[in-house]
Amino acid sequence: MNEMELKDGVAVVTGGAGGIGGAACLAFAKAAARIVVVDIDAEGAERTASEIRAMGGQAIATRADVSQSADVQAYVKRALDTFGRIDYFFNNAGTEGRVGPLAEYDEAVWDRVIGVNLKGMFLGLRHVLPVMIAQKKGAIVNTSSVAGTVGAPNLSAYSASKHGVLGLTRSAAGEVGKLGIRVNAVCPGPIETRMIRSLAGMSNPEDPDSVKRFNVGRNPMGRYGDPAEVARVVVFLCSDAASYVNGAAWVIDGGRAAI
Q1: Which of 29, 44, 131, 254 is the most buried (most CB within 10 A)?
Q2: Is residue 244 among the annotated active site residues?
Q3: Is 205 domain-assigned?
Q4: Sign of the dihedral defined by the CA atoms of residues 129, 232, 36, 199, in that order
Q5: Average pLDDT per block of 10 residues along the chain, 259 residues long
Q6: CB atoms inside a 10 Å sphere around CB 122
Q7: Residues 75, 88, 158, 224: which is the catalytic one?
Q8: Strand 10-14 and strand 59-63: pairing?
Q9: Which CATH number fits the domain that encloses residue 102?
Q10: Which residue segment(s) compose the domain that 59 sits in?
Q11: 220, part of any domain
């Protein structure tokens, strides 16, 4: 079997209705895995699952708010009831919050961003890890961000949450590496998704395209990334081709952080 093939494996993907999560669902399916598509947008999750089934793959969709423990336990149970195991977990769901100065940041928005982006990551790990520990095998990829590696002015909640994801990733990797489980993170830069368009609109409502022009102008590759480019790294990190990669944070930003 090709090292990048995930034949008969079961992948759970949160935030799978679109963007990076949706692209990852399709990439896992192309690698022959069976997919559990999780999203708070039930219709979007079902669209992704239907697309996979139309390709000849196996996929189910389930709605969940990843910040709620009962919802997380429910998607784990659904995966086990349907497929009997969880081999790969893309712990990806996230929200951008608002753009604004820290001294004026809304407390309710802060709580929601931390709840989804950080607590949601914790809950995913908390309830998927026991399954993988029992199996003595598994691979997990958490979604952080380049904003988790450096500060992000006017995105304090988002940046703080994504820094926290890296701490969780490294802590988990140190705990479960000897148990046959690898835990890594991806740190995307600007990727062509709904989220980046939302951030541009909040940053400059009069001319959101100027935000893209500015970011692209500073990028060595002169463009935004495609969700599929992140998805391929996620599948690689879950595959046997990355069998000695554990506790790593993979920056996927076209080289922006390098200059």
Answers
A1: 29
A2: no
A3: no
A4: positive
A5: 80 98 98 98 98 98 98 98 98 97 98 98 98 98 98 97 98 98 98 95 96 96 98 98 98 95
A6: 18
A7: 158
A8: unpaired
A9: 3.40.50.720
A10: 10-189+225-251
A11: no
